[in-house]
Structures are given as C-alpha cells and as structure tokens.
C-alpha cells in the first residue's frame, strides 16, 4: 500500500483515511487521519514493515496501545484502537491539535517559572495515575509531552511503558531504554528495574530544561552524562537563571538526585516540593477570629528535655535556619495540638530545609544520613515579632494545577508560655545549672 509517502491520492488503513504525516517517531510515522464512520480526526501511528517483522518490537507496539488504553486521564493521550492492515500494524490515538513541548521550547527557548510549573503539574497528574496503576513510562521528556490549543498538557508515547507487577517487560537486563539526558542514572544500567522514581527524575530534568532553556548535561555523551549523573555533577538551575525561586531550584535538584532514595517518592510529593504546600486534605482546629495558621512541634533538646512549641510556617522555618530548634531530624510536627505528629520531612512546608540531593552511593559504601540545616545545639527560644497572618493553604483531592501563592507569618513560641517573670528567671537559672552539670559529667 506504500505508506512511506502521501502524495496526491488519499490512502487509508482499516476504516481510517490518512490525511498527512505529522511526525516521525522511533516506532514509526504518525499521521493525522479521519475515521470514515463518523468523521472524527485522529492520530495514527503506523509501524514500518521491517520493524513489524521483529517480534519484540511488535510486542512493544501492542504494549503501547494496551497501556494508553488502560489509562483514561485528561493528561495522557488516549489510545482508541489497535489494528493491522495488509500486514502493517497501526495504532489509533487521540489527536492533539497543538504542538509538542519540545517544539514550544525550540520557539521560545525557555518558559517562565509559573508556566513551566503549570505544565509539569499537569504531566505529574497523568504520571501519578499511571504509577498508581503500576505503569512506569521510562521516557518522559519535552518531545513526549503534547500541548493542545488550550494549553492542556498530555503525556504521549507509551511505547517504553513497563508494568511493574507483571512480567510485561521488553527490556533486556543491562539496557537503558530512554533518552540519556533525561534518564535516571540507575536506568542507564538496567531499565528493567526502572520504577516511579525514574519517571520523577525525568520529570525534574524536563522542568530543568523548561526553566533554564538548557538541556541537562548538554555537552556530555551518554557515558559522560551517566558519570556526571551518579556524582550529582549538575549545574544548578538558579546559576543559569538567577531569578528562579529557591524552592523550585531545590525541587528540581531533589527530583534529579542521583540517589533514588533522596528523590520524591511520588509525583504528588514532587508537586508538593514545587509549591511548598501539602496536596492532602488535613483537619485543623482554628478559631474564627482570623487567627494565624499555626503548627505545633515536639522535640527534645540536648539535655533530653521535651519541648512543645507553636508557630507559623515562616517563624518555624526561620527558627530552623537559625538553629533555635536543634537537629531538625528529631522534630515532629502537626497541624493540631493533639497530633498526630510526624517528622518534619513529611511536610512540604519544611522539607526543603531537611532533605538535600545526594550522589549515588557506590557499591560497598554506606550513605550518610542527610543532616538538617540547623546545628545540633539548642539556643534559647524567643518570641519573634508577628507579621501579617498567613493565608490558609488550599486542600486538594488531587495534585494542584498551579502553585498556590505562599505567604508567611513568623511567630514561634513555647506552648503554654504564659509564665511570669519570676518563673522565667528560675527556669533560666535551672537551665544554666543543668548545662553546667552536664558539662562536667560528659566532658570526658
């Protein structure tokens, strides 16, 4: 039937007319087509005969349909039909009237931080659904993200999808299917064991290019890129674009951490890193008189004394940076005075002060524990001047499409701190005495 060219005469596969070639992919050409039955415009990927003769490639082509057909999500290109015409396999997909994110980048060089996060958050929505259905994409990159006329992002090209809980895996051990500059370092060595954190790495690498206009590890060949990846030898986005926010800079670096254990565990967590707010519904106890949005912390100082403090996000963050709360790894927090209390790293409002990117541990080495930014000594806690109240973060059932505005309110004070001056003086004396005794007891 001669599918390599589309000249004057209209051709067809199955009950679809082929109108024009719109792209050329690794698994075949993609055409804009029309369903003869109802006139619907579709995209049709046609596998060339020499690839169809390869059983592994043919199976992968079928797998792309099964994965896309299984995922019904507005941020994933839908698969409509899989068929064969004159021994030529073809895949019918939703037609996205727009362009790829790669084409947009070629035209605009780089995107604003807000627009980049809006697009990435949508892709994260689709990936989040795929991961919940035990599917790993393994080739997330700008060229595999489509944008329709309304700006809706849709993840495409599921030909490398791996199903994590079955034997449906067409990658030989030792082969790193994917695109080197966007691929997680462990995927270089063995794509067969790729998991959701590999997709998160690629999503972070995609955001890196969106906000900087620079391809990650751009001057490196595949082997050199892998060596730089495992060592976390990556130029920070903020060094390329100084106006980039600290939070987005950190979120990208964390997602591209060489050690997968240091990356976000889910796409939901990655979006939380970008926004600084939880996407989960929480129950809080607030008065109705516009009281600040308070958090409650429980921690022990170096003498083993347990403290409970409360404060706004900005006050707690400032106290952590200044070292007033000691080792942040020992702190538990809650939105409610009665708990439950969880480690600070569980909360996106504080996680960027606790978790740092890390190189990939070499065989036979033990990775060191990520230390908090705050020193381990506990300084006396003082009340911080109160600023304007912080707006209450919105709660979401899914992932947010755009980052909420972050406003801060600084106050941290000891819970139950309505104490008279005399009592304070006594407490200060006892603290000093305890410190002196501890010094003589433990100096040896």
Q: Please describe the biggest sheet, giving its number of strands, its sense, and whether it closes into a barrel.
A: 6 strands, antiparallel
Tell me the span between the first and last alpha carbons: 88 Å
Structural class: alpha+beta
CATH topology of the largest domain: Transferase(Phosphotransferase), domain 1
Notable traits:
disordered C terminus; 6-stranded antiparallel sheet; 12 helices; 5-stranded antiparallel sheet; about 15% strand; Phosphorylase Kinase, domain 1; Transferase(Phosphotransferase), domain 1; disordered N terminus; about 450 residues; alpha+beta
Report on the structure:
- The protein is α+β, with helices and mostly antiparallel strands and 444 residues long.
- The chain has three domains: 11-94, Phosphorylase Kinase, domain 1 (2-Layer Sandwich); 99-275, Transferase(Phosphotransferase) domain 1 (Transferase(Phosphotransferase), domain 1, Orthogonal Bundle); 295-363 and 372-434, no CATH class.
- It is built from twelve helices and 16 strands.
- It has helices at residues 49-52, 55-70, 101-108, 113-132, 185-189, 196-212, 222-230, 237-240, 246-255, 267-275, 313-322, 421-442, and strands at 11-13, 16-25, 28-35, 41-46, 79-85, 88-94, 98-100, 135-136, 145-148, 153-155, 162-163, 295-300, 306-311, 332-334, 342-343, 412-414.
- The chain has a six-stranded antiparallel beta sheet with strand order 1-2-3-4-6-5.
- Helix 4 (113-132) packs antiparallel against helix 6 (196-212) and helix 6 packs antiparallel against helix 9 (246-255).
- It is elongated.
